[in-house]
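Re: your question about Polygalacturonase

S., sorry for the slow reply, the queue was backed up all week. Below is exactly what I fed in.
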Amino acid sequence: MSAWTEACNSTEGRPSLLIPSGTFFVGPVTFKRPCKGPMVVQLQGVLKASPNLADYDSDNWVVFQYIDGLVITGGGTFDGQGASAWPHNQCPNSQKCKLLPTSIKLSFVTNTTVRGIQSINSKLFHMLIFGSKNISLDSLNITAPGDSPNTDGIHIGNSSNISINSSVIATGDDCVSLGSGSVNISISNIACGPGTTNGVRIKTWQDSNVLKAWDFAFEDIIMNDVYNPIIIDQRYCPYAKCNDKAPSRVRISDVSFRRIRGTSTSKVAVNLVCSESVPCKNIELSDIDLIYKGVGEATTAGEAATATCLNVNGISTGKQNPPSCI
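Result:
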């Protein structure tokens, strides 16, 4: 930390923190404070997290906080060493669970670039961006086994002007997930899989707060043996029982699904289930071509994919395979 503090306080040129080739075991650490100018972190080696959960007093491992003009690059690796922690993750079974540590957290940072790094085997999320703006993520390689729980690649919340480009994200859960307060998020040229069972999805809980979610454009996407290629789920419930006393109060509107093609392993390839209290508005299906493969399901030869809509208003144009339900 003394090297970070010295570089952060430097006013000469563009200071940098170099982590050279080699393997370094690092406990929970936070790099923060407004620096005198832009900072570069050159990660060339491998940072390994402690596998012992008792070493963490929060749900973070490496945190960058309150920094403007940060660059993280160098081709190195963040290794969360999550395998020993995954059996302790109770979040897939209960909402009242203790969160395991996220590998990399960008909190209240601005004008930041993360380029050419790897993150492997996070205990929970690989990367979390919160309260930040003007962030560019490029050429990342994020991996964890397909059955590793809640190892989302990148989660974004209360942040704006975020671009994610030219990366491979192969984890046990969502590729990229957006929480409330996410504005102007651009995601392009990303290869996702294998853990998530969904393609492009908008989900809300029942009996939720009054919120709005709008202006989504899902375009030029190839699905390769994906369960639920296109889905809006306003009855989301991953547990045996959820609070279903009232329908979702999240108003979804202005969503376009354009030029999406490939193969579906679920017979319902387009599944749009919106709230009965605030139906979805201005939903567009354009040039959809999804072929049903039926992997793991009892199928009849030549059986076609289908589409289901509930409480949806919108339009469909161009090719529609399966036939549109709008």
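The mean pLDDT is 94. The helical segments are 2-8.

Happy to talk it through on Thursday.
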